[in-house]
Structures are given as C-alpha cells and as structure tokens.
Amino acid sequence: QLQQKVVASAVFRGKKEGYVQSINQPFLDTRLKETDINPKVLQLIHGEKIKYATPVIKYDRNGFKARDRLLVLTQSSAYVVEMAKIKQKIDYATLKGVSTSNLSDGILVIHVPEDNKQKGDVILQCEHIFETVTKLCMLANKQNLVKVVQGSLQFRIGSGKEGTMVFTVGQEPQVFKAKNGQLTVV
C-alpha cells in the first residue's frame, strides 16, 4: 500500500486535480473479483495471475463511441476485455507510455507500439484513475513513462494516423467528438 502511494505521489503530486483528495483513500487490491470476469476470458489469459481488474469505459478510435469494458492487469500484460472476448492485449514489455490530463477526469491513454498486432492507442475512462494508473505503471515497471498533460494530447489511431484529445473545464463532465473531429473531454 505504502509503495503504491509513493509511486502515485511521484507520478501525480502537484500535476493532476483530485490527487490530494485521493491520498486518504487506500488503494484496493482489485475492483473486481475473479468471479466477476467471464470464465472464457480467464481461459484465454492462460492462467496468468490477475493482479488487478476494474470496470472501464473504452472510447473507439474512430467516432469515439463509449463502450463498457474491463481492464484486467496480469503480471505481464494489460487486457481490454468485452464480456467473453479479449479486445486488446498489451504486453508491458512493449508499452510505450500512459497519458492522463491534469484535470479531474478519469481519462487515461495507453500508448502502444506501431505494429501489426496493435490497432492503436487505448483510450479509457475509469473511476479510480490514480489507483489504476499506479498499478499499471508498477506492474509494467514504467513509472517514468506516465505523462500528465495539459490542454491536449496526441494518440495513435492506427495505420499511421493520429488523433487529438482536448481537455477543457466546464459545468458538467462529458466526453464527445467535436465538430473538428477531436475527442473533447470536459
């Protein structure tokens, strides 16, 4: 617990809104029990020990449609899971980085290499952003690759194309595709 809080402090302190409020809340070992995960998925990850699982909203790379998913972290990989299907597997060894905004949204982008196995970067929204990013970067041993960005960030859509995500402050939280085609997070 203490080690995780030290990493969270190194990554987020003074950089992301809501960090100070998160300090008193202990990180949970996981947000979902193994029984909450479809047995087919457990079979597909071939007995890798699940270290952390949490419900997330994944945004499509094209059109940014919101989809309910699970983020499952094992000793060696992160999986984005839909019901009984693994939608994307990211080996920690190939993880290029993780980005999040400096605002109080729960958005994180997992940056993956440009190769045929990966469709592009993964855009997720989760309720426990500090806990999730801390566990991901500790399991991957890539604390130094977490970026807290201001204003906007670039992400890879796949096949060499890039997208832009813009972060703004507004009355109520929302995520939508703006007229200019950018993903806007309020």
From TrEMBL:
<dbReference type="InterPro" id="IPR010926">
    <property type="entry name" value="Myosin_TH1"/>
</dbReference>
<feature type="domain" description="TH1">
    <location>
        <begin position="16"/>
        <end position="186"/>
    </location>
</feature>
<dbReference type="Pfam" id="PF06017">
    <property type="entry name" value="Myosin_TH1"/>
</dbReference>
<dbReference type="GO" id="GO:0003774">
    <property type="term" value="F:cytoskeletal motor activity"/>
</dbReference>
<protein>
    <submittedName>
        <fullName>MYO1H protein</fullName>
    </submittedName>
</protein>
<dbReference type="GO" id="GO:0016459">
    <property type="term" value="C:myosin complex"/>
</dbReference>
